[in-house]
Amino acid sequence: MVAGLIRTLATGLLAAAAMAKDVTYYWDIGYVTANPDGKMERQVIGVNGVWPVPEIHASLNDTLVLEIRNSLNTPTTLHSHGLYQNGTNYYDGPFMVTQCGIPPGANFTYRIPVQQTGTYWIHSHYSAQYVDGIRAPVILHDPDEPYKYDEEIVLTLEDWYHDQAAALLKQFLSWKNPGGAEPVPSGALIGGVGGDTQKKLAFEAGKTYRIRLINMSALSMFHFSIEGHTMRVIEVDGFDTEEQTVGNVILSAAQRTSILVTAHNETDSNFVFHADMDTDMFDNIPEGLNYNSTGIVEYSADAPLKRDDSVDWSPFSDIDLVPRKKAAALGFDVSFQLDVFFNQYTDALNHGTFNNITYVAPRVPVMMTALTTGADALNATVYGPQTNARVVQHMQDVQLIVNNYDAGTHPFHLHGHHFQMIERGPAPYDASYNPRPTSPPMQRDTVTIPSMEYVILRFRADNPGAWFFHCHIEWHIEGGLAMVILEAPDVMQKRLSVPQQILDHCAQASIPTEGNAAGRSGFDLEGAPDGPFPYPIHWTRKARGAMAGCVLSALVGFATIFWYGWSSKKTYATTAASPARLAE
Description:
The protein is α+β, with helices and mostly antiparallel strands.
């Protein structure tokens, strides 16, 4: 019997190996012009002279190969959002976490093992570059697809800006913006089109469609619904769920959801679908902004539009979804509390922070510090004060308690993992309370946390690497709302070998690839980023000096006024007492 099981297992492994293949895409990343909303033609970042960037498709056990040429005048990197990259942390993409950037005119090859299935996307992880258009769906197919449907539709939701990302970022990170108001988009794109052009989804009678919704926005949250049709959620962020009927789906920036929709048997009417931007995310609503975007479910080109105002807009709760693959709730070996604040800092800019530390990239990419500092890599100090680094051991169960004390909603993304969503509640979280769910918790890779709420996330540290955890509102990550989790640095040193291309690119940019956050040995961090800091709440020496100067200036001013007034009085008295002078 054992021999039979071994033969069966071997046969299965050989079959999987035979089916696995390299799926290669050649991308020349460069500038093109586009006018997707019909209101303004602008420069965007496309691929092979095309924008929107075409979809990427691969299957479980394939190797996704991306041959990249950077034809921009700035560096770039690519992050395959939601992919585990187990064993390939160096291909994860965030600038100065795992890469130094692909220099202008250079080539780079990403070789990513497909270790999962579902709906993902790819985008630049260099500055705010993806806001200018370098983003695309990534669909990873399951040869043993658990759900039955006739066709699938990939539908992207994006906020769209008429201004360039660099100018918007400069506007956001400015002393003239002390409140941290995010740039409000010029409009929305559905499936790459906007303005007066409506996206059409072609339906055939009786067919069941899988619609893969992907929010590729910089800021906006979308509410999606289809009039006159029933939607059944089957996946969020690449994690399959049991079917759940919903009236609407809410997607924050970077989130994905798959729904099943069965078409009507009659084809005598077309219907409206909604992709409405949530205006609570905006500090103001510019005149003329159309935030209620719609498209058409089209059964027949000449059929009339049938409106149905009975859409169920009740809240969509992802934590209540039931995972298809059941895994018991994790406990935790180590727990980190992350308190979210936005404040003006000593550089006069409004920064996002975890525990009042705003992320500033170190001089050496974080992953390379972990790989080159030996036993010191197990000490978070070596990564510098501004990375907010946390070190965990291999196979520990990790808990993140995130309290959102900011006035806005934030979508937080963890690289390298799906996490279990254990609990939500009003902030602050009571640290004496340890929730123990009795049913398998839902998992995803990007979680939305409303203002003054907390969420508890747990994951197993089974993927050695340097993994970014950050807000996926692009303006916020650039403002410092990020930190890094160093997962098993000692195991990283045994398993990971950085590709020579990455080292060459670092050398070309004069970025060191060894040592601590300052490029030095041990814990000598001279030269590593240190600050900005919160404005102190007590009287500093400079503040006392400034106040003393103000008081002294005031006293001098009062004395001058008094002296001038007294002198004028004496002059007037002398003049009044001299009739001869008056006669003159």
